[in-house]
Amino acid sequence: MPITSLTPSQGTVGTTVNINGTSLGTTVSVNFGGAVVTPTAVSNTVVTFVVPSSAPCSGQVSVSTNLSNGTRTNSVPFFVIVKPTTTGLNGTCLPAAGGSITVFGTGFAAGGTVNVGALTPVAFAACGSNTQVTVTAPAHTPASCFDTQQVTVTTAAARAARAPP
After folding, report:
1. Which residues contact 140 (CB under 8 A, 6 or more apart)?
2. So what's the pLDDT on residue 49?
3. CATH of domain 3-80
4. More confident site: 55 or 36
5. Which residues have a Cβ under 8 Å from the Cβ of 146 and sit 6 or more positions away?
6. pTM of the model
7. Is the model more confident about 84 or about 91?
8. pLDDT at position 165, please?
9. Cβ atoms 113, 126 nearer than 8 A
10. Are 107 and 120 contacting, i.e. CB atoms less than 8 angstroms apart?
11. Residue 95: half-sphere exposure toward Cβ, Cα within 13 Å
12. Is the CB of residue 65 less than 8 Å from the CB of residue 29?
């Protein structure tokens, strides 16, 4: 069994991954789910590749290598995680504490937090809409349109920031 682990074992499109194992020096390609990827580096114990843009939005995929003698190694799981993006907010002013903030974008179903400037982060559930998240505004001063704060959505995968419109 040549492959022993992946480092990291989860990530987003563009993540550099090391396949760790033995007898990997003749690797010619990496199987990533249904995609065949060219490795960026190959040694007897480590094969490096980049998660391709064809990766699914989220979920588990199998990773194995193809060796120059035509054999395929064992496969190990890699978990693709959602990287959030933000496209807008529900208003032009940060509402008073207790009001609602709705952030629009993608990748929010993974759960995480909404940060408004340096205010206390507000958590949101790991289920629900992938394209919008609504949270209760944290306490802040001044509570007016003169208070410009950057809104950031953070999930297990990454962060996406949006300044108020």
Report:
1. 94, 97, 116, 117, 119, 147, 149
2. 97
3. 2.60.40.10
4. 36
5. none
6. 0.62
7. 84
8. 42
9. no
10. no
11. 13
12. yes
Average pLDDT for residues 49-67, to the nearest whole number?
89
Q: Under 8 Å CB-to-CB from 145, ≥6 apart: which residues? A: 92, 93
Pairing type for strands 10-11 and 76-80 reads parallel
Tokens 């682990």 sit at which residue? Answer: 5
Are the C-beta atoms of 150 and 162 separated by less than 8 Å?
yes
How far is it between the farthest Cα atoms of the chain? Answer: 68
One fold for both 3-80 and 85-162? Answer: yes
Query: For 100-142, how does the pLDDT look when each residue is reduced to its tens digit (9 = 90+)?
Result: 778 888 777 666 788 777 777 777 776 666 788 888 777 666 6
Whether omega before 8 lies within 30 degrees of 0, making that bond cis, reads: yes
* Domain ranges for the chain: 3-80, 85-162
What mean pLDDT, rounded, does the chain reach?
81
| Sheet-wide strand order for 112-116 | 122-124, 112-116, 151-154, 159-162
Residue 135 to residues 91, 123, 148: CA-CA distances in angstroms? 13, 8, 18
| CATH superfamily assigned to domain 85-162 | Immunoglobulins (2.60.40.10)
Residue 36 has pLDDT above 70, yes or no: yes
